[in-house]
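Consortium newsletter contribution from the modelling node. Members have asked for a concrete example of what our holo predictions look like. Here is one, prepared for the flavin-adenine dinucleotide complex that several groups have been discussing at recent meetings.
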Amino acid sequence: MSTPADFEPMEKGFDLAQAIAEADRCLLCHDAPCSAGCPAETDPGRFIRKLRFKNITGAVRTIKHNNILGAACGVLCPTARLCEEKCSAIFKSQECPEGADRPIAIGKIQRFLVEYAWHQGIQVLEKGAPRPQKVAVVGSGPAGLSCAAELAKEGFGVTVFEARPEPGGVLRYGVVSYRCSQDFLNRELDDVRALGVEFKCNHPVNGQRDAEKLLAEGYSAVFLAPGLWQAASLKKQRPAIKGLWSSVDFLAALRDGRFAEMRDAVAGRTVAVIGGGSVAMDCIGAAARLDAADVYLVYRRSYAQMPAEPDERIEAQEAGVHFLLLNQPVDYVTDGGRISGLKLVRTRLGEADASGRRRPEAVEGSEWVLPADLVIEAIGNQAPDDSPAWYPRVKVNDRRLIEVDPDTGRTSVEGIFAGGDIVRGPALVVQAVQDGKVAARAIKDYLTQ
Ligand SMILES: Cc1cc2nc3c(=O)[nH]c(=O)nc-3n(C[C@H](O)[C@H](O)[C@H](O)COP(=O)(O)OP(=O)(O)OC[C@H]3O[C@@H](n4cnc5c(N)ncnc54)[C@H](O)[C@@H]3O)c2cc1C
Ligand code: SF4
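And here is the predicted structure:
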């Protein structure tokens, strides 16, 4: 039987000997292609070289100066398609396009170095000399934290406004705890707090023009990073059916410490998770750990088209999850106000759509019902319907995503910048970190020129 204790632990990271042995495999390429593969300029070529020469403080300094969420990224980045994909140690060639060896485990080395610094009390970041201007950051996810830390290093006063009780965004209320635990996240947040960043939690900035009013309230610039927290549903409005969850509510309940309640709801039951991305993978992994009798992943395209990372898909299969591919959910089946099944229609793949993937087409007359006690919808998150009202002069597109200059994060309103998922749509932690850095540089230029 699962307990919170065996739900919680993260996989153990490298120890010193493992990290050094792995760094010793590095070919010390002159042009460090791995560094070019990192969206946040964390510069693995440089920090691995420093570790290789036993300069641990220098290695940690490289990471933390470039990426305030170095530990979280070390754990969560899909490295196989970022830095590690570019690693020369793979020895890719014409005869062997898949590569003849494995890449250096960059993410694991990165996580080790940051954790080692925490344990050894190595401090590598300093507050900048104080400047008179204050900046407001809306949202404490990776984009907000990164922007806040960069500005604090430059000496600006930074206040982060967060709607939820604790900071961290998806890292706190989304990603499952066995991938990024509360303690791990809190330790990384301490590095942000040590720079003097002030957090105002339980403080949503979501009234009419509230985000724009911050400029009139004494903040010289505003960085908008509220992410995407409105979960999409099969229906225009998710009906109130017992046993029907959004991925946002399901994962946040686990992170809110409602483990026993969630276990009671899931254990011994049949759970169907709709979706094919990383969020769906977190939901099926959590449901399996909560002792569901059967977990089904329902996805309307094929295995090869799933957006989830290959290792996540393999892990799910190893956990015994049933993959129901080429099946499109069309309706819920209920019994006395409770979910009792999911109505599906089989699909076949047609021509490629705008995403470049072959479009799933319903097979006429193939409807069937998958019996299920719980259904979790993990089919994407979007900006809340009312979010444009928080910043009515800021230009948004038809998906309510904020439009910015990609080189600066500037919005259509002077003094207001934005980044992270609210600009890109659902993306990655490391990309949100980079957006925060880019905007912080532009905010500094804006306030000092
Ligand atoms: C379940 C899940 C698993 C994921 N797994 C991975 C992974 O393994 N690897 C990876 O790279 N990426 C992963 N991602 C994507 C990644 O987490 C996001 O791209 C990233 O968190 C975006 O950062 P952000 O700062 O833009 O927004 P968020 O992390 O969403 O943070 C936004 C913050 O703003 C707050 N907020 C919202 N509205 C307001 C308001 N009006 N006023 C004040 N505060 C507000 C929210 O409460 C939240 O704390 C995952 C996403 C999800 C949902
Ligand atoms: S931040 Fe992520 S992508 Fe960048 S070097 Fe580190 S693990 Fe690789």
